[in-house]
Design goal:
The complex is a heterodimer of chains A (416) and B (96). With 416 residues, chain A is of the alpha/beta class. Helices cover 30% and strands 25% of the residues of chain A. In chain B, the strands form two sheets. Chain B has a four-stranded antiparallel sheet with strand order 3-4-5-6, with no helix packed on it. In chain B, strands 1-2 form a two-stranded antiparallel sheet. Chain B has 96 residues and is mainly beta. Classes of the chains: A alpha/beta (416), B mainly beta (96). Bound molecules: flavin-adenine dinucleotide and zinc ion.
C-alpha cells in the first residue's frame, strides 16, 4: 500500500489522478475467520483496525450488507465532543477525543478533524443550572469545559440572535473548545484502508441473515453469500442491532428511531463553530464546502425506514431561524434520515453476551460518531481478551437488570 | 407525516395531533413484590423493537386525549389498523 503524502499528490497530478491504487481490496469471503465483525460503519471498521493493529489478530472479516460507511456513519452531522456528565461516560468519550487528535497521522488518511469548538445553549434558568453542574463535573474529570454568558456566546457567534424577547432566549452556553467536527466518510474510509492494509477482509453487499450458535457458542454467520465460520462474532450494527441480536436469541433494551438531518446550499463562511440546543432540538455547523449542516430531533415512533416525518424538520428549522434570523432565506438542498439505536439511559452497550464468542457494540443512538475511534479501540480489546476494556466495563447489557444505569439524557439528549 | 385514524374520534388526523407511547400490550406484573431484579429489568427496559409489524400505543394528545393502539409496519410505516384500548389486534402477521 502506497503512503499518501503531499509528494504522492503532486506525482499523481502529473498523471491526471488516473492511476491511484485502490484504497482497499474487494476479496471473496474465506471459509472462516478468527473474528467476523458484522457492520461496516465507522465503529465496525475501527474495531477491525484496532484488533489488527493492537491485538495482532488479522484473520478478520468485516461483513457489510450495503457499502462501507453507508449507515449512520454517512448520515450524521459529525459533531465531536466529550462533555458528558457522569464519570463513566465522560471517560469513554474523552478517550475517543484523545484518539481524534492523532487520527489522521495514525491512519495516513485525512479525516479532516477540525477542533472548532462546540457550544450547547441554555434557554432558561434550569438549563443554565444543568450546564453549570455538567461543566463542573467535566472539569473535575479533566475535560475542557467552560460556562459562557450571553455576551460571551455573542462574541464567538456574532450572528446569533441575543434578544431576550424571543421564545427561547440564549441565556448562555457550555463550551468545549476542544470539540469540533470531522469528515464522516473519511473516517470510515481511513479505518477501512488501515484495516485492509493490515490484512482485514472487507466484504460488502453481504448481509448477515443468521448467527449460528452451537452449544452456547457462536460458530459463524449465515449470509447472502453463504455460511462464513468464525470463532468470534462482533456485531456493530447500530439501528439494526435488535434485529441482529434476535438472530442469536438475544434481546437488547434498544429502540430504533429515525433521526433526520439536512444541508443547505453552500454559502460563504459565516459560522466557524458548532452551535447546539438540546431544548429546541436544533444544531448547526458549516462544512468546508460551505453548506450549513443542520440536525433535527428524533421522530418519536419506532422506525427502520431511514426517513422521518416532515414536521420534525419544520420544527428544527423554525428554531434555527429564531436563533439565526439571517438563515431564514437560505435554501435547503437535501434532507435524509438514519436509524438510531436509542438506549434507555442514552449510553452505549459494549458487551459480551450469554453466547460465548458473541459481542455487541451498539446503543450509541443519536451520538456515536464522536466516539468512533474510542468505541473501536475499547471494543477491540473486549473482543480480543474476552474481557471488557476497563473503560467499557460499566457499559454491559447487565446494567439494565442490575440497575447500574448511566443516565446521560441531559448531556446526550437528542442533540449530540 | 403519518395519517392516523383515531378509533374514538372516528376521524383521520395528522400525526402532529398525536403523541407516541411505545409498544402496546405490555402487561404490568401482577405480583410486583415477587419479581427478581432481572424480571424487573425486562419489564421496564426491554422492548421487542421489531423491523416490521409493531403494535404500539398512541395518544390523541390535542384531540380526545385518549390512548389507543395502532398496528404499523416500522419499515414501510404503513398503518394496518387502529383499535381501542382493551381490544386485540386483528393484523398479527401470523403471530398472535
Ligand atoms: C441524522 C443523524 C445525525 C447524527 N449526528 C451525530 C453527531 O452530530 N455526532 C455524533 O457523535 N453522532 C451523531 N449521530 C449518531 C452516529 O451517526 C452513530 O451513532 C454512529 O455513526 C454509529 O456508527 P456505527 O458504525 O455503529 O453505525 P453505522 O454507520 O450505521 O454502521 C452499521 C452498519 O451495519 C450494517 N448492517 C446492519 N445490519 C446488518 C446485517 N444484518 N448484515 C451486515 N451488515 C449490517 C449497516 O448497513 C451499517 O452500515 C447521528 C446520527 C444520525 C442518523
Ligand atoms: Zn381522538
Amino acid at each position: 500500500m502506497k503512503k499518501y503524502s503531499g509528494f504522492s499528490l503532486f506525482k499523481h497530478s502529473l498523471k491526471h489522478h488516473e492511476d491511484w491504487q485502490k484504497a482497499w481490496r474487494s476479496p471473496r469471503p474465506k471459509k472462516s475467520y478468527d473474528v467476523i465483525i458484522v457492520g461496516g460503519g465507522g465503529h465496525g471498521l475501527a474495531t477491525a483496525y484496532y484488533l489488527a493493529k493492537e491485538h495482532g489478530i488479522t484473520n478478520i472479516a468485516v461483513v457489510e450488507k450495503g457499502y462501507l460507511g453507508g449507515g449512520n456513519t454517512a448520515r450524521n452531522t459529525t459533531i465531536v465532543r466529550s462533555n458528558y456528565l457522569w464519570d463513566e461516560a465522560s471517560k469513554l468519550y474523552d478517550h475517543a477525543l484523545d484518539l481524534w487528535y492523532g487520527l489522521s497521522q495514525d491512519l495516513n488518511y485525512n479525516v479532516m478533524f477540525s477542533s472548532r469548538g462546540v457550544m450547547n445553549l441554555g434557554h432558561n434558568l434550569q438549563d443554565m443550572r444543568d450546564i453549570e453542574r455538567r461543566v463542573n463535573a467535566n472539569r473535575l474529570n479533566g475535560i475542557d469545559a467552560a460556562v459562557l454568558n450571553t455576551q460571551e456566546v455573542k462574541e464567538i457567534v456574532p450572528i446569533i440572535n441575543d434578544s431576550q424577547d424571543i421564545r427561547y432566549p440564549v441565556l448562555g452556553a457550555s463550551w468545549q473548545k476542544t470539540g469540533g467536527v470531522a469528515r464522516h466518510d473519511a473516517v470510515a474510509w481511513g479505518f477501512a484502508r488501515g484495516a485492509d492494509q493490515l490484512g482485514v477482509d472487507l466484504i460488502q453487499q453481504c448481509e448477515v441473515t443468521d448467527i449460528v450458535v452451537e452449544q452456547g457458542a457462536v460458530t459463524g454467520v449465515q449470509t447472502n453469500q453463504g455460511f462464513i465460520g468464525a470463532k468470534k462474532v462482533a456485531c456493530v450494527t447500530a439501528g439494526n442491532s435488535g434485529v441482529v441480536a434476535a438472530m442469536a436469541g438475544i434481546r437488547l433494551p434498544l429502540e430504533s428511531h429515525p433521526l433526520q438531518a439536512l444541508v443547505s446550499e453552500p454559502i460563504k463562511p459565516i459560522i466557524d463553530t458548532v452551535v447546539m440546543s438540546n431544548a429546541v432540538h436544533a444544531y448547526v455547523s458549516q462544512s468546508d464546502k460551505g453548506d450549513l449542516v443542520i440536525g433535527a430531533g428524533i421522530d418519536s415512533y419506532n422506525g427502520y425506514g431511514q426517513r422521518g416525518s416532515f414536521h420534525v424538520v419544520e420544527h428544527t428549522l423554525s428554531a434555527i431561524c429564531e436563533l439565526f434570523p439571517m438563515f431564514s432565506r437560505v435554501r435547503m438542498n437535501r434532507a435524509w434520515g438514519g436509524v438510531v439505536d436509542t438506549c434507555p439511559d442514552a449510553c452505549p452497550i459494549i458487551s459480551k453476551t450469554r453466547v460465548d464468542g458473541l459481542y455487541f457494540n451498539c446503543g450509541w443512538g443519536t451520538g456515536g460518531f464522536k466516539a468512533t475511534p474510542g468505541s473501536g479501540h475499547v471494543f477491540a480489546h473486549t473482543v480480543a481478551h474476552d474481557e471488557p476494556h476497563p473503560l467499557a466495563k460499566p457499559f454491559t447489557i447487565d446494567r439494565f437488570n442490575t440497575g447500574h444505569l448511566i443516565d446521560e439524557h441531559g448531556a446526550a439528549g437528542v442533540a449530540h | 407525516m403519518l395519517h392516523i385514524y383515531c378509533p374514538y374520534c372516528e376521524e383521520m388526523r395528522e400525526e402532529e395531533e398525536f403523541s407516541y407511547s411505545g409498544e402496546a400490550h405490555i402487561a404490568r406484573p401482577l405480583d410486583p413484590e415477587s419479581l427478581t431484579d432481572a424480571e424487573w429489568g425486562d419489564y421496564v427496559f426491554f422492548r421487542t423493537n421489531p423491523r416490521g409489524l409493531h403494535h404500539e400505543m398512541w395518544n390523541h394528545a390535542v384531540g380526545c386525549r385518549r390512548y389507543f393502539n395502532v398496528t404499523r409496519n416500522t419499515h414501510t410505516y404503513e398503518i394496518y389498523e387502529t383499535y381501542k384500548m382493551g381490544e386485540q389486534p386483528t393484523v398479527t402477521g401470523g403471530k398472535s
